[in-house]
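User: Okay, second chain of the day. Same drill as before: sequence in, structure tokens out.
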Amino acid sequence: IYGVGLDAVNGLRKGGSRNQAVLISGESGAGKTESTKLVLSFVVEALGGAEGGIQDKIMRTSPILESFGNAMTVRNNNSSRFGKWLQLTVTG
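Assistant: Same drill. Structure tokens below.
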């Protein structure tokens, strides 16, 4: 997970505007939401995000987004019923 985050950060730091994409997929209960949180935390921290800043705002939106369309399944009590697109714009 951290290697993927590092690759994204390194791509962002290279000269010019180099867009990065991270695709996290898997079956119900595989840890997609937790993996997303880890990658986001790593990227924001590596880019110099201050505590209480954008990282906290992003992390607080995740439960709200997850609450729409979730349902109980045999594998997971809170299974997503949709894909989620999260786009970050990094300047500076």
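The two ends are 25 Å apart (CA to CA).

User: Thanks, on to the next one.
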